[in-house]
Sequence to fold (404 residues):
Amino acid sequence: MKVLVLNSGSSSIKYQLFRIDDWQALALGLVARIGEPEGEIKLSWRDDADATQARQESLPIPSHEQGIERIIRALRDTGVLTDVTELAAIGHRVVHGGVRFKQPALIDDTVIAAIRAVAPLAPLHNPGHLAGIEAVRAHFPGVPAVAVFDTAFHQTMPPEAYRYAIPETLYTEHQIRRYGFHGTSHQYVAKRAALWLDTPLAQCNLITLHLGNGASATAIRAGQCVDTSMGLTPLEGLVMGTRSGDIDPAVVIYLCKHLGLNADGLDRLFNRQSGLLGLCGVNDMREIDRLAAAGDERAELAIAMTTHRLKKYIGAYYAELGWVDALVFTGGIGENAVEIRRRACAGLERLGIVLDDARNAETHAHGERDISAAISDVRVLVIPTNEELEIAQQALRTVTGTTE
Ligand code: ADP
Fold:
């Protein structure tokens, strides 16, 4: 049997197919430009000889429903899926589950209504997820579908971590609080870290750093999230590719009063034009590394601000947790950016965080690895994230009613 994982956006659907026996990823791909005159479907898969094959087709894909149908057809054509009856579950990634979803949920009318109800908190994501969920229901009503929420893992945060110090009614009447995101990734790397430490997750204190285009840090006590850097939306916290992260809210007031920015202008400024891009004109960390090495001062500042903010969060979460078993780096930057890891950990020796410079600098190393020195009290781990696998496994557990 197999599990299909879908990540539906407003005009695209990313997908990945897993075989349950060994959790091998059999195929992955993307349907893009749904609703445009010319859409596209991409698929890569492992053939019988275990070689990677790829194909791509351009054609109009008018709706999410037809996108889903195309995905199933492409998987069938290439032989990785014989029929939908082979699917034990379909797992849908859903960015925002509000306070309601602390666990993945088997999708029914009530769950769909609840995802719709929190859509104002994730206007860029939840409507696209709903289109994918509805399309699957309409087309394959017999396959159990599960929603897996980016926010769910953070629902264990205590109020002192999730509330904002603003009037209470904004929380009670408008649900304005911190939710946190990237939960599936933090949860996945936390589990892998526990295996690496050979300690039950319920006994592990961890700081997990998911550093991709979006970036967030999470404090995990005894296996549960107690704090995370993203807030009501994914804008809060670390310096990101195009997002500012933490900022004095009075900057917003100033921009409204003196530069005449409205809500859309502010949204664009803080979500799309800020972060690394706003600081040095580039949001790709590889390019920023090259520019900084060539003496570009703006690129150097972008790196310095990224690592300064990271260090602040590591320190804050260390203080919250009291003791830390491991610091875990993941995401495109966390897994690959040697200099970011080095500078984020520099000077933390008194906290028991000591990198092995040579191990940290192994640029061709892949897979899970320990980059801390033998004398380091805190293990520093690099663990490639795999959100799709985590969604697939959570979806199957939800359908079969099993626990880990
Ligand atoms: P997303 O959040 O879009 O999934 P990723 O997790 O793929 O993003 O991370 C993208 C970031 O990772 C980019 O800034 C990219 O430059 C950075 N990155 C990828 N490989 C390297 C590398 N070898 N060195 C430094 N940065 C890297």
Remarks:
- The pocket of adenosine-5'-diphosphate is lined by residues 212-214, 241, 284-286, 289, 331-333, 336-337 (CB under 6 Å).
- The chain has two domains: 2-149, 199-387.
- The longest strand covers residues 24-32.
